[in-house]
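Annotated sample (chain length 209).
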Amino acid sequence: MKPGMTEHEIAGVLAHEAEQRGVQAVVNLVASDERIYAFRHPLPSVKKLEKYALLVLCGRRGGLVCSLSRLVHFGSIPADLQEKARATAGVDAAFHVTTRPGKTLDAVLSAAIQVYAEYGYADEWLLHHQGGMAGYEPREILARPGCLELISLGQACAWNPSITGTKSEDSLLVGEKENEVVTEIAGWPNYEVETKGQVVLRPAILEIN
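Output written by the structure step:
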């Protein structure tokens, strides 16, 4: 991916890289620059990438689906964008730490909503669904206020908090002692977030100079 490519071209590269690994790209979303601020679930367009890109992939292999999003910025990342991205990572970390056996989806969502407010973005969660249980579909049960569906050991979940212009998304498996992030990308930069006495790594914006 490089500046000057259209979002359609970037989506084509993403699909190619997934499919050649045996992963069917069932959701393939791309936005660049100002479109990231306008759309949280962006269908690719003829818009050409200038500096900033959001890529979203839900990939199916062996019948099961994993979801992830990544942000890439060509050139120095503006301070206000970096601040938003860190806040979004903080919300995502709360999702990951709270997603434990016996918890309801409502309890997990409520904890994340509180963190949105702590970072000063109290209403951002209302602008897009936050994710939920995954498996044979990208999301099988969405987390909504009042949802009493219980999280079980071995459950797959994918959370996707967003603050206008940023997003954080990975898929995890709920373990007995801790959760396993199954969409981690080796070598990708991370934010270190402290939450509930734990240090959680969440993907940062990749800066390319």
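Annotation: The chain has one domain: 7-208.
Annotation: The chain has a mean pLDDT of 97.
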